[in-house]
Design a protein that fits this description.
Oligomer: single chain
Shape: globular
Number of strands: 14
CATH class: Alpha Beta
Helix content: 25-40%
Number of helices: 10
Number of domains: 1
Length: 277
């Protein structure tokens, strides 16, 4: 059976605002998270990711007040991550209306946390975020290496080995982001994406580097991703969700098409379209 590819906009949130940088650095303001969430729901996004990107670096929990405001408005599955370190953290987020919780650094630090969370809440509620970088041959490190704490700390762990382990521990999906390509708009790290996707059975969400429609297609056909996450191209109105879906559909990729009519207002932040496919 041919799988349906999901399109997932990502809200990287800092100080209550959606931000976007390059290679996890030089962050600039993009938009209001609630306004963005409402716009992406109207445009037909399949899921929405919300990442409190400085929570782990600042050694704090997810800012629940930010999550709550968005959770009250979203009408699609909602993934939240950043600062999640305990079973209680996951329960609190799910009680707020979050559909899936993303764990990154805490999973690397304590792999047993994954299995405990999966047993408590179910595999479908658990997304393991893996941030990675590519090392050159002269380094005595894995070519594809896991990094944590917002990409600031290398681990020496091979990405594929870690992906296989988190699947065995009970992860429901993997959110894979290449630090090297993040925000560059030069395309996803297809080697990294394909290596992970071919090593596991669970869905792999490709993240980091989308700059044009062709990159989305490559993530699926070459990278073997089950879902495509992007930020810059959607936040800065370079490509809309309907445009992405129409393009992929035209290339023979299965996507979920919904009937949407949307016309822009001064605050809507959406593209003019009448999608009736």
């Amino acid at each position: 059976m041919t799988k349906i590819i999901k399109i997932i906009p990502c809200l990287d949130v800092k100080n209550g605002r959606v931000v976007k940088g390059v290679k996890f650095e030089n962050l600039k303001d993009a938009r209001d998270p609630v306004e963005a969430a409402e716009a992406y729901c109207r445009e037909g996004a399949d899921e929405l990711a919300f990442l409190d990107i400085t929570a782990t670096i600042e050694n704090r929990k997810t800012r629940l007040e930010w999550v709550k405001k968005v959770a009250e408005k979203v009408t699609i599955p909602f993934i939240v991550g950043g600062g999640v370190t305990s079973i209680e953290d996951i329960k609190t987020l799910l009680d707020l209306g979050v559909d899936k919780v993303s764990i990154n650094t805490a999973a690397v630090s304590n792999p047993g946390f994954i299995s405990k969370a999966a047993k408590k809440f179910g595999q479908d509620k658990l997304v393991i975020a893996i941030d990675g970088r590519k090392n050159s041959a002269e380094h005595k490190l894995p070519r594809l290496e896991v990094v944590i704490k917002g990409g600031t700390k290398p681990t020496g762990i091979d990405i594929v080995d870690w992906a296989i382990q988190v699947e065995k521990l009970g992860a429901g999906a993997i959110l894979l982001t290449s630090k090297d390509t993040d925000g560059t708009k030069k395309g996803y790290d297809l080697e990294m994406t394909k290596s992970v996707a071919e090593a596991v059975e669970i869905p792999v969400i490709a993240s980091g580097g989308a700059g044009k429609l062709e990159h989305l297609y490559e993530a699926v056909t070459i990278g073997k991703a089950s879902a495509i996450l992007a930020a810059s191209i959607f936040h800065f109105r370079e490509i809309s969700i309907p445009q992405a879906k129409q393009y992929l559909k035209g290339k023979g990729i299965m996507v979920k098409i919904v009937r949407i009519t949307c016309y822009p207002t001064p605050t809507a932040g959406c593209f003019p379209f009448d999608l009736k496919l």
